[in-house]
Protein: Ubiquinone biosynthesis O-methyltransferase
Organism: Thiomonas bhubaneswarensis
Amino acid sequence: MNPIDHNVAPEEIDKFSALAHRWWDENGEFRPLHQLNPHRLQWIRDHVDLHGKSVVDIGCGGGILSESMARAGARVTGIDLADASLQVARLHALDAQLEIDYRLVSAERYAEEAPAQFDVVTCMEMLEHVPDPASIVQASATLVRPGGWVFLSTLNRNAKSYLFAILGAEYIMKLLPKGTHDFAKFLQPSELAAMGRRYGLEVADIAGLEYQPLSQKFRITQDPSVNYLMALRRPAQ
């Protein structure tokens, strides 16, 4: 393996490849992503007008976020290392008559190929699935243009997130398959912010994503104690 492609967890690629055919089943394993996607899209749009913007979606999977950004007028490139997921994404975009450039490439390699080429970089629900999340943050900082935005989301690491995101979501409510998350890979907001600063990004905003069991819906909150979103900017030069 080329050193630039070091940041790969084969078991994670296999996990998502095995579920690739379920990406667009809104009642299947990816139901939580479909439920939260309108909220994360709106949060992005609250910070930047996506119309006409060039966007790269890191860890795009089957294209749930990529498609919603394309519908908002963005020129979207989706990258992932699970080829089966990308095949599903391409077929679904074709059926939806959306032009999205899906590529089988790592964030680190693509950052070498296309530095400072994007107005917006997104990486949602992926950092907790890679061995080296700082490497993804560095690639994001490289891909974004000066003055551009980087939007990240992941899970906080504390007792509450273990209770809600693992015990609650995977074992009690069965929202996610058991073993979806590894608590040791969760990142506290302070840790993620420090990674961003290390690579020249400034934190602009942090918000929480809260699941409400009674309504079975998500909402944006000011509490980042479990799921959270972080908006960062590369200073204009």
